[in-house]
Amino acid sequence: MGSFLLIIQIGIAVVISSLLSPYIPRVSMPLVQIFLGILWFFIPGLPLINLDSEFFLLVFIALLLYFEAMHISRSGLRKNLGITLSLAVGLVLLSIVIAGYTLTFSMAAIPLAAAFALGAALSPTDAVAVAQIGADAQLTERQETVLATESLFNDASGIVSFQFALVTLITGTFSPLKFSLNVLYSFIGGAAVGAVLGIMLNHLIVWLRRMRLETTTNRILIELMFPLLVFWVADDIFEASGVIAVVAAGLVARYHRVGVGEDLAEVNRVSGAVWDVVAFVLNGSVFVLLGIELPLAMRQTIVNDKVNTVGMVLTAMVLCMVLYLVRFFWIAATLRTTKSHETGLRRKMTKERWHSAAVMTFSGAKGTISLILAFSLPSQLDTMTDFPVRTAFLFIAAVYIILSLLIANIIVPILAPAEKDEDGHKFALANLEMLNRTLVAISRIDNPDQHIAIEAVMRSYNARIARQRGKVLTPEELATLHSARIEMRHWQSTWLENYARRNPQYTDACQRLLAPIEYSLTHDGAGWFKHVRTRMYFLRLKTVVWIRVMRAAIRFLWTRTVQVTTRSEDVEYRRSEVTRIQLQLLQDSIHHAFILINYDQVPPVVGSTIVSELRTLIKSLQMPSMAKPGATTFESFPHQFNEVLSQAYAIELETIRTMADKKEITREQARTMRHNVFLMQSDSVA
């Protein structure tokens, strides 16, 4: 039951992080998830975690690395293979040596082999953490490719080095030749196993496709099980690197790009959606687990009298600074010695290339693999000397990981800030692409009873696309448009309050129209006091209406003369009243927009955009039914239109989230798009 509770708590933390992340764009999601994991650690009843490193690598890391390898640029990997291997092998081995001697210099009681083991644990960059950096900073294509491929490959060299350091620590002997051969076999053997199995998977899925046996279900199951199988075969049967095998299998996978047809496109679309969810959940779970384990690693040091906590923090900071310097000069030397693809000559280190070296240096964040390896240190380390080595190392590893994540989150966006969209052209292109994808998704809504409403909603989206193509607003005009939309929603809220005050019998209809307006305003952080005041006002009105209803009911029971309509007739009547009031509200909103334009309270380009949006919505609501008699009545059409429009807005929000997750749009662009949808949702009543 304790493990089940742990899974639920981790899942809740991942969901909360996804909800919080859009509102704190300057803080990367891994840091949010780590913070939630630390909070979760202090929840009573949470079982202590004792993660098996092999199980963690198999279930979490294998799936994540396979997903990352499948989507990495093959051409970029070929162009930068030399730099990648230099960082994944050469830099890792040098970092282990430097870290080992730095630790023994700081703490003389530590055995050198144990220091090398901690250096090996801290040497690999974390693929999950590195993947998040691109969402917060503007990295070049080459920087992203090198960082991504480095994080995929350096796990193997770090893990093999860690294992050899432990063997040396226990046996007291070290063979450089045996170590070198094992590293080579781990890389080459793992790559060969992964490549062979990946090619076999390509042939298997292509054969299933040719025999018409490929379905969405078996395709997704095969994809999810395959990385686990590859890791197990390479690690247990061939005793090579399971990590490298999974990466190699992902790199040779091409079955999703072979063949054409609607069925294949649909299978690829569903498979991509499933992988997006799996990757997001696993990514989030990794960092939540990291947050839960960090207090475990630190607590042992804090309560141990033999360990100076302040001294351990200073040691971790010194080690972090030394390894970052080593990484910086190694990357700079690699860039200096690498030949240009165009000229075939080595290039001098310019200011831009030094800057690139700095960006790639601070992007080398550490993550959960480093902490898992640190936890794998044998407990005998605390008894081998008078100094509790393992306890101190766990604390140093935890502090080092936190520092590396903070540095990547703070310094990298400063060194490589996202480009400013001065003329609004990039946002216009991104918004246009988002609208087109949303329109395609809307066209897949299959409900014969709502075809007319779906057609009307698609026309409204086509109108938005046409407006977007016709005019590109600058960032200042976009901000003014956003403010004008909020002001218009406040005006509409006041209009509905006044209408309900003059016509108490329509209080329910007005409240139904007001609810989405209030919702959109609260999403923009505005109008909380007005939101509460309006709620209280309508509660008072509804009380008055209910008193009148009770009086009518009493008269009905007394006289038996009141004529009662059927439930369906009453529902249709309420819908028609809501639509009538909504149309009147939109007409008056257009009049108010023209007043704002005439009195120079909004620029004409902004005012005309709002008027165009309102007119499009009015035209959609007034669209006469073209269905067969009895299929869709004129009275029910506005209700169906609003239902489909609500679905369309949900699809649009999901499209925005997907594009943001895939880094096709920036966080700022995604936030602006979401705010626009929230404001437009206030015009629809489902």
TrEMBL record:
Task: Give a GO molecular function annotation for the protein.
Answer: potassium:proton antiporter activity
UniProt subcellular location: Cell membrane
Which InterPro entries does its entry note? Cation/H_exchanger_CPA1, Cation/H_exchanger_TM
- Provide this UniProt record's keywords sorted from A to Z: Cell membrane, Ion transport, Membrane, Sodium, Sodium transport, Transmembrane, Transmembrane helix, Transport
The principal location of this protein is membrane
Which GO cellular component terms, listed alphabetically, does the Swiss-Prot or TrEMBL entry include?
plasma membrane
Span-the-membrane segments of this chain are: 6-24, 31-49, 55-72, 84-103, 109-131, 152-171, 183-205, 270-292, 312-333, 354-377, 392-416
Presence of the UniProt keyword Transport in the record: yes
Q: How does it sit in the membrane?
A: Multi-pass membrane protein
Residues in Cation/H+ exchanger transmembrane domain copies: 17-415
What processes does the entry annotate via GO biological process terms?
A: regulation of intracellular pH; sodium ion import across plasma membrane
Listed name of the protein: Sodium:proton exchanger
Q: Which organism is it from?
A: Alloscardovia omnicolens
